[in-house]
Amino acid sequence: MTEKAASPSTEPAAVNHRAVVGRNRRNKTKARIIEAALHVFAEKGPDAPVIDDFIKATGIARGTFYNYFSNTHELLAATSNWLTDDLADAIESTILDIADPVLRHGMGIRLWMEKAKADRAWCGFVATVWFQSGFAVAGPLRDIRLGIEAGGFSCPSAECGWDMTMGTLRQAMLRLLKEPLLARTTYTDDIVETILQGLGASPAKRREIFAYPLAAIRRPTRTMG
Question: 187: pLDDT confidence band, cut at 50, 70 and 90?
Fold first, then answer.
């Protein structure tokens, strides 16, 4: 007599609680190192600190530090990305309801420049270090690609448009640091206008972007110090 094949189990796979707890602990420790690094970089600048500065600020063992970062350059990159991804995520949640990718991208870079204008410490650190990853890449790249597909942008590719956008933003942030009085002028809006022209947005669309209410970012964003 042929045995019946066992029916597949419908019970959910057991969760490895030890692995989850360990992963959460590692994430918390990494975040604690990065948060402490913000204070160190704010005090000493991006190039001066040594690993002992971060170990002292965090209160962890040297071996623990090396479990997360091999050197200060890696920590600098992680700290920069932690700041920029936080802002990009906050902007994303603020403009998420805007369906038009061209309008969404325009409002996103307006909000980015508002942060740079209002938070000099953040602007100085991000513009000087400027490692790009995560949300700071994904959102703008997506909207430029969708804008090209919809006919609202006419740049050769999303990658070209993204490089132009982010390069112009960084240079504008550096100029704001050197010439702080520009924050009282139309300079930041002029930069956004220039980026939109470079992407090929029509005059009518650019007017629509600047006429759209500039809502405050919905949650506080990270800063230096």
Answer: very high
Distance (Å, rounded) from C-alpha 128 to C-alpha 170?
Answer: 9
Positive or negative CA dihedral for 208, 214, 218, 219?
positive
| CATH class in words for 17-70 | mainly alpha
CA distance 214 to 221: 17
DSSP 199: H
Name the CA radius of gyration of the chain, rounded.
Answer: 22
79-225 topology per CATH: Tetracycline Repressor; domain 2 (1.10.357)
The answer to whether the CB of 96 falls within 8 A of the CB of 156 is no
Which of 38-47, 54-63, 167-176, 185-194 is the least confident region?
Answer: 38-47
Residues of the chain with CATH 1.10.10.60: 17-70
Q: How many CB atoms lie within 10 A of CB 137?
A: 16
**What tokens were used for 21?**
């707890």
Q: Which amino acid is located at 24 in the chain? A: N
Residue 155, both tokens? 């740049």
